[in-house]
Amino acid sequence: KSFTGSIMLQHRFMGILAILTIPYFSYFFNEKFKSKKLLFALIIISTIGLSFVYNTGGIAAIPRLKDKNATEVSKAINQNITKESFLIIDFDGWENTWFYALKSGLKPENILINYQNDGMEDFLKESERKINTNSNCIVVLKKGSEMEKNFKAKVFQPNHSFKIVFENGKAIVYKAKVE
Question: 20 to 30 A from 61, CA-CA: which of 85, 86, 107, 130?
């Protein structure tokens, strides 16, 4: 795997690699030579420095959101939830979807995520059940997605109140209640 650059060369594994090599470095420092200490310091500094320069597969040394719309959607979610709220999220890429869930601060059992339209009918049934059983439910739909079309057609019921609390070019955030 390291030959193809798909596992041990990724930056997130550097911490594990450093911890596992500590016993070997103790032998390295057994003798009191300044040249070995200097070599060790040089290796560590170059490893950290090069992690900012060379990125494998788009993995950056300091992770950042590529899509700034995700922060706007997250703010809208947080302004409309309580600790007892339920969050339903349409898949909007791994980065954005998990950002919405993590920044909401809700427990994992209070979050339902649609992963790339897998089992859409089951997801829609579960979404409707959660909306019917929770007094405060927030729904995040990606604009133009299959889930948005199916959600509006199959989950929006006459006894449901869906209020748009945020909308931009990429997502719509609804506050759902049963009347």
Answer: 107
